[in-house]
Amino acid sequence: MSATMQAVLCNRYGPPEELVVGEAPMPVPGERQVLVRVHATAVNDYDWSLVRGKPIIYRLMFGLTRPKRPVPGMELAGVVE
After folding, report:
1. Which residues pair with 20 in a beta bridge?
2. Which runs of E-coded beta strand occur in 17-74?
3. Is there a contact between 24 and 10 (Cβ–Cβ < 8 Å)?
4. Distance between CA 54 and CA 81 in Å, rounded?
5. Phi and psi (nearest 5°) for 79?
6. Of 73, 63, 75, residue with least CA distance to 12
7. Which of 14, 20, 49, 68 makes an SS bond possible with 63, Cβ 3.0 to 4.6 Å?
8. Is the previous residue joined to 55 through a cis bond, with omega within 30 degrees of 0?
9. pTM of the model
10. What does the alpha-carbon distance between residue 30 and residue 35 come to, in Å, rounded to a whole number?
């Protein structure tokens, strides 16, 4: 059984109501990476654009019909595990 974490998920593009709290697979850090237990996060313009799927060029990079990576977030504060 793989480890999971609680996360805000963006399973399809749209308004903020599309975001849901759910379970996601715990990421496994690769070489020269760290795992961070997140205590706080912020929503920035990048995240908001990714959730909405606009501008449309984002969909070409991150998934045409839905985000390839359903856990948004670029800014965080936490503890390195």
Report:
1. 9
2. 19-25, 36-41
3. no
4. 34
5. -120, 130
6. 63
7. 68
8. yes
9. 0.79
10. 9
> d(Cα 27, Cα 37) in Å, to the nearest integer?
11
- Per DSSP, 26 falls in state P
Please give the DSSP secondary-structure letter assigned to residue 16: G
Q: Structure tokens of 74?
A: 């670029």
Pair of tokens at residue 23: 């379970």
Token pair, residue 6, equals 């609680």
Tokens for 30? Answer: 């690769």
pLDDT in tens, 2-55: 799 999 999 999 999 999 999 999 999 999 999 999 999 998 888 899 899 999
Residue 10 contacts residue 50 (beta carbons within 8 Å) = yes
Q: What is the pLDDT of residue 46?
A: 87
How remote is the C-alpha of 13 from its chain's centroid? Answer: 12
